[in-house]
Amino acid sequence: MRNIIQIFLIIILIFLILLFYNKYLKNNNDTNYNDINNKNIPEKFSIDENINNTIQNLEYEITINQENNYKLSSKASEIVYEGNIELIKMYDVKATFNNKNKNDIIIIKSEEAIYNNENYHTTFNKNVIIEYLENIILGDSLDLNLEKNFMIISGNVKFDGLTGQLFTDNIKLDMTTKKINIFMNDKNKKVFLNKK
User: Fold this and answer.
1) Tell me, what CATH number does 138's domain have?
2) What phi, psi does 99 have (nearest 5°)?
3) Domain range for 169
């Protein structure tokens, strides 16, 4: 009788082991294999444009040429993708241009900026401030194009320097020649100058 009970218990144990194996181990492996084979895997990997990355205290330093450096920093930044182009949305931004030979320093500050990581093109927005020598320029936005070596500050532009104040719509600075072009959007309006 004792042998019969032992054989019966061994048969139940084997039955339970087979049942456990079929339910949890064998079925999971087959399901995973089938799931992987049945998925539509794209041929080319692409970045999801809706996924963004946030970075604190970001800083870029770019050597423009042997004489000039461009340093761009922000307290908070977000990496976004438009097509295949990586753009950096920056907040509480400061940019510095430094000419090593002449000790000329141009400082740009703004609340926001968008930086193109491919061509270094930067657009500064909201309360833009440019400091150069004894001069301060205020405006709504600034477009910095390092490929063409110019910057345009526009929107409620105010220039405050040693010789006086100037109010205009746009100031364009050629960064190579240091020539400045001051102009209004409406050709019928005139630039306002207040000498000290």
Assistant:
1) 2.60.450.10
2) -95, 110
3) 74-195
Backbone angles phi, psi at 172, to 5 degrees: -110, 130
Q: Which residues, 6+ apart, have CB-to-CB distance to 161 below 8 Å?
A: 134, 135, 136
Give yes or no for a contact between 137 and 153, defined as CB atoms under 8 angstroms apart: yes
> 116: Cβ–Cβ under 8 A, 6 or more apart, which residues?
85, 86, 87, 122
* Tens-place pLDDT, residues 7-63: 777 888 787 777 777 776 764 444 443 443 444 433 333 334 444 577 788 787 777
pLDDT of residue 34: 42
130 lies in a domain?
Answer: yes
Residue range 71-123, pLDDT digits in tens:
888 888 888 888 888 888 889 999 888 877 667 788 899 999 998 888 888 89
